[in-house]
Amino acid sequence: MPVCVTEQSWVQQWPRVTKFILSACAATVAEMVTFPLDLTKTRLQIQGEAAIKQHGPGGGPQMAYRGMMGTALGIVREEGPLKLWQGATPAVYRHIVYSGVRMVTYEQFRDVLGRSEDDTFPLWKAAIGGMLAGAVGQFMASPTDLVKVQMQMEGRRRLEGKPPRVHGVYQAVLKIISEGGIRGLWAGWVPNVQRAALVNLGDLTTYDTVKHILLRNTSLQDNSLCHGLASTCSGLVAATMGTPADVIKTRIMNQPRDMNGRGVLYTSSIDCLIQSVKGEGFISLYKGFLPTWMRMAPWSMTFWLSFEQIRKTMGISSF
User: Fold this and answer.
1) Which neighbouring-strand residues pair with 250?
2) What is the pTM of this model?
3) How far apart are CA 41 and CA 282, in angstroms?
4) What proportions of the chain, in percent to the nearest 5, are helix, strand and coil?
5) Which of 45, 165, 178, 234 could form a disulfide with 206 if both were Cys (CB 3.0 to 4.6 A apart)?
């Protein structure tokens, strides 16, 4: 009983810190479960851009991988099964910052604005809150995202006979700083933040809205079934809205940089968008959509189920 009292007083004394920690724990579980799909998605999005640069649209050698399963099997066969988790460490670091900040920001935004008289949170408020929370969280976590993307591509570089750029998280951070200074850690932050705002418009806004619609208009209780249905919807909407920005973000962050830390392939997210559409067509913006959705769906479900259950265990009200 003393432990429960101490735990309860700790939760009440530092509610935002508590919610940050719980969000980070739930996100870590979800990230480790679904990380191989994130690696597959990244490889699919990167392939083809080098050939476009060297040979022009329609030229160049055939791509090494075709489709999600081909990419995943190719990684296992050529690099080993453990390489499916290459870059998982910075990915976990990223979500400790990103998910913790975005969840606390959204709840704070929702508490400040308050619900309507009928105890609903209007969709337009939820949309603004979701985009704001995603943008703030991603800006804070952008350096870890840059390290994650670069580490994910190391196995592919070795197979192409290119020298490795990094051998670990610490070395990757030092390399980025040596090439572009502290500002280099935020390379690609604009498309990064744009993507996060769109993804959270789909994820946070959809989950919060769908969950409370189900609770108000159906006989469902505030339990795992309700959370699962809401998270399924949020994963699909987030993938649909976020994939184009995700492709642009990944390409900008993965491009080589000159001595001043500027990208040598793309000058901006708009330039990357134009080059991608011109060289590979509009459909290139949805490269990796299937693995993105197949990752976001289980990620979203794992995260929300874990998050809601942890909150319940800690005596915190449902999200």
Assistant:
1) none
2) 0.72
3) 18
4) 80, 0, 20
5) 234
